[in-house]
Amino acid sequence: MLAQQPGFRGAVKPSDDSRTPRAVRNDVAQPGQEIVTLRYFRIKKGTFDQFLKASMEGVWPYFEKIGSRVIGMWQVVTPEGVDGFPTPEPKDYDEVYLATRYASTAHWAATREAPLLGGNGPDWEKCKKALDLRQSLTISSNVIFMRGSMAPNGPYFMPGLKEVFEKK
Fold it and tell me: d(Cα 144, Cα 6) in Å, to the nearest integer?
């Protein structure tokens, strides 16, 4: 597990903010063993919607461009009225999980210096602004790396119909 270091935007290194355009021509896709990262955030209470919007509109499009695949982002909630769940103690922060797929650990490491993969054009500027906003809302963050296999089937919910049947 890696702890977030000061001066990093979600562990993305600050880029050279010079106005010199950085064009990038990418090599062919590199083979590797796919990983999933699970990043945990403690963020300022009540800011999840803002955090999610910055991610969806600013960060994720750029990271998709450089080959990452976001699985999703979730706010930790405690369901009410579910047996076995105690009443939670109030917290002065919200908890968030972000799951992302990478082609390999080398791919993840390369995305820490994102402009080297995707350039520093307007899409990077938008991403950087969103990363800065997320950083301003973040109290702490860490990441774990996982290997495995994605299941081929998705979840489904098939509630019973509210019908009454009679025996004949």
Answer: 18
